[in-house]
Amino acid sequence: MPRLPSRCRGRPYLPSFMSAFKFETTANEAASAVSSNIKGKNVIITGASPKSLAFEAAKAIAARQPNLLVLTARSPSLLQETRDTILSEVADVNIKIVEFDLSKQDTIREAAAKLSAFDVKFDVIINSAGVMAPPYALTAEGIESQFGINHIGHFLFTNLLVPKINEGATIINVTSRGYQLGNIQWDDISFEKNSYNKWHAYAQSKAANILFSGALARRLAHRNITSFSVHPGTIHTNLGRHLTQEDLDMLAGIPMEFKNPQQGAANMVIAAFDPSIKDRNGAHIDDDNQIKAIPAQFAYATGVENEDRLWALSEELVKEKFVY
């Protein structure tokens, strides 16, 4: 792993903020607490396949009378399974499914165009889809798959939808404490010069999720749009389907306290709908459902300079500029 910077630079993060929610809070409990802010909203959730955190968040939100719940994933059959499961529990919710592949920018553009044709504007986007520590692969555009799917795909998808989101909307980017496993290789994002390390690749994609939220918070503040990054915690889901015992052994010594999927999905709901944090725009919510500062030794995951550098790199990789 590369040596980590010792201090933060750029925009300082706000100090820790104590909310009413705890480590053990479930998505259902969080949704019940903020139900009045879910009712009537138009919500998009990416990565809503069965056995995912997005699936748990979607179920909790669906039960609180949103106007429209849009679920996306790569597999149409898995999306249909998610939709059918939710409708078997909440019969009167309006659910639409849109399949697209975050590793293929043409399908992202097609999905965004389809959503832009809907006769509503959106109040919440929860970018939850992702991959973790797979074997080395490239996206259709030649970007290392974790950075390409976890960040670049959501960067393009979100920015294409900005014209279709309401004033006061909220954008959530699901990150991970895994951002602490390695810095951003600004000059070698796709490991063309350095040997591939799956955990380092994961780390830089998750640091990008944090920086993207900070950048959105600044750039869209004039429309009262907020953005937060959230670390759900350590949970057994299908995200870990690529992991070998050797991969897990590499994480030995890192403190972990496991959650169940319902608990893991809670801070997506909190970040999206809790009105008490609206004035903490750009903040990071940890797995105890509290707003926390990014520790100083991980300076690559914070600061205006890094946010703007990532934005410029992302525009280059999607071959489109987004100015607000």
Automatic annotation (TrEMBL):
Q: Does the keyword ATP-binding apply?
A: no
Q: Does the keyword NADP apply?
A: yes
Can you say what this protein is called?
Short-chain dehydrogenase
Q: Which domain of life is it from?
A: Eukaryota
Q: Which InterPro entries match?
A: NAD(P)-bd_dom_sf (IPR036291), SDR_fam (IPR002347)
Identify the keywords attached in UniProt to this record, alphabetized.
Answer: NADP, Oxidoreductase
Query: Record's Pfam families?
Result: adh_short
Protein family (similarity comment) = Belongs to the short-chain dehydrogenases/reductases (SDR) family.
